[in-house]
Amino acid sequence: MALSRVCYARAALWGSAVTPGSFVTRRLQLGRSVLAWGAPRYLFPRQLLIQHFWTPKQQIDFLDIYHALRKQSHSEIMSYLERVTPLISDAGLQWHLSEMCTKIQRGIHPAIHDILALRKCFCNHPLGMNQLQALHMKALSRAMLLTPYLPPPLLRHRLKTHTTVIHQLDRALATLGVAQLTAQEVKSACYLRGLNSTHIPEDRCRSWLGEWLQISCTLKEAELSLLLHNVVLLSTNYLGTRR
């Protein structure tokens, strides 16, 4: 039985307040009943406005503006990665991360294996989830469409929770298969994960989502900081994003 269209589109675009776990994964994989997923409370009024009162063109214009604001954090995140690279103890990982940052700044879309080669960088100091600095967490929150206006402990907790939910969704989506999603579901899923999919053809969105899932489903819980940063690494130079 296929994924519930209405509930997935809602969850994929706005995220979920549901605590991740086997229940969420099982329901998403099997589609046995309607998922009780809702938008985060701080986004709910905006969701109602978009869904019920705005024309399709207004919705697209809003997503473009919102993504432009979100994209301002990309340069902050890349600068931070460059700044902390010398603090990584492994010289080989230092070189690889430096090369990755240079390529992205030159407009090159990174390969999946190049991103996965960095997974050890994001387990411990300075890029592990528990070692991220406050200003960097604020930039990451904006990139994830989350408000940055919280104390650092709450920012860290919510980034962890939000990334874990996406990781759970990714595993379920990989089992279900991207081919089972409608065009709107694919575009919504891409947008949540950092890609401004409003002007990208459906087939390219499916391809990008497939790349994301290959990375996400390879990562362990201790490596989820890489998935959080992947919002920038994988989306910055993808086809059609430099509008």
Task: Describe the protein.
This protein is 61% helix and 0% strand. The protein is mainly alpha-helical and 243 residues long. The chain has one domain (55-233). Residues 1-50 have low confidence and may be disordered. Helix 1 packs parallel to helix 9 (183-192) and helix 8 packs across helix 10 (202-216). The relative contact order is 0.15. The protein is built from eleven helices and no strands. Pfam families: LETM1_RBD. Keywords: Membrane, Mitochondrion, Mitochondrion inner membrane, Transmembrane, Transmembrane helix. Residues 69-243 form the Letm1 RBD domain. InterPro entries: LETM1-like_RBD, LETM1/MDM38-like. GO terms for molecular function: ribosome binding.
Mean pLDDT metric? 78
**Broad shape:** globular
Helical stretch tally? 11
Largest sheet: none
| Number of separate structural domains | 1
The N- and C-terminal alpha carbons lie at a distance of 38 Å
What structural class do helix, strand and pairing data support? mainly alpha
The radius of gyration over CA amounts to 17 Å
| Strand percent estimate | under 5%
Instruction: Give the tally of β-strands.
Output: 0
Helix content, binned percent: 55-70%
What is the helix/strand order?
Answer: HHHHHHHHHHH
Unreliable spans are: 1-50
